[in-house]
Amino acid sequence: MTLCWKYFVPISFADMIGTALWVAIWPNGNQSAQYVMFAGGLALLVLFMWRVVHYTRSAKMKLYFSPTI
C-alpha cells in the first residue's frame, strides 16, 4: 500500500493531467507524435529483448520449452 500511495497515485494524477493537456492542445491528434511514440516503444521492446537474451546467456541456464519436464 505504501508503494501505491507514495508513487502510483501521484504518477497516475500527473498522467491524467498530462493527458488532459494533450487533448486540449491537439484535439485531433498529432501525426508526428504518433511516429515518435511508436519508435520509442519499438526501441524499448528491442532493449528489453536484448537484456533478456544477455542475461539468459550469461546465467548459463538451461531453457526447457516443454511443460512436462
The sequence of SSEs as H and E is: HH
Extended strand count: 0
- Beta-strand percentage? under 5%
Overall average residue pLDDT: 89
Structural class category: mainly alpha
Report Rg: 20 Å
Contiguous runs where pLDDT drops below 50 for at least 5 residues: none
- The percent range for helix content is over 70%
Q: Give the overall form.
A: flat
Mind summarizing the main beta sheet?
none
The number of distinct structural domains comes to: 1
Question: Number of helical segments?
Answer: 2
How would you characterize this protein structure?
The chain is an all-alpha fold. The protein has one domain (2-59). The protein is built from two helices and no strands. It is flat. The protein starts with a helix and ends in a 10-residue tail after the last helix. The model has no long low-confidence stretch (mean pLDDT 89).
Features:
77% helix; single chain; 69 residues; flat; mainly alpha
Short description:
This protein has 69 residues and is mainly α. The chain has helices at 2-25, 31-59. The protein is flat, with a radius of gyration of 20 Å.
Topology:
Blueprint: H1 2-25, H2 31-59
